[in-house]
Amino acid sequence: MATFLEDGHLEIDNNRSERAIKPFVIGRKNWLFANTPRGARASAIAYSIVETAKENGLNPFAYLEYLLEKLPYMDTDDKAAMTALLPWSETLPAHIRRRK
């Protein structure tokens, strides 16, 4: 049975997710540093951060730059401070958000 027929909130296809990963599929031969498990893990983390930033209306470059400026000086065990860095945090600086 087609589950999307039972729940109107579900999309019929996964085109949105496929479009999100298309740039990585096209360029995969260029990313030779991911030829080890550690390289693949690092790539997956970076891609996840970028795509989550996009989904939350952030400029991915500005968000990564912000994270790389802040994280070295933070106590990563401080859950409140780490939560403030998440892409859906209301406390992120305005210049990171995409203009609508």
Automatic annotation (TrEMBL):
This is IS66 C-terminal element. It comes from Alicyclobacillus vulcanalis. Residues 2-41 form the Transposase IS66 central domain. InterPro entries: IS66_C (IPR039552), Transposase-related (IPR052344), Transposase_IS66_central (IPR004291). Residues 48-88 form the Transposase IS66 C-terminal domain. Pfam families: DDE_Tnp_IS66, DDE_Tnp_IS66_C. PANTHER family: BLL1576 PROTEIN. It comes from the Bacteria.
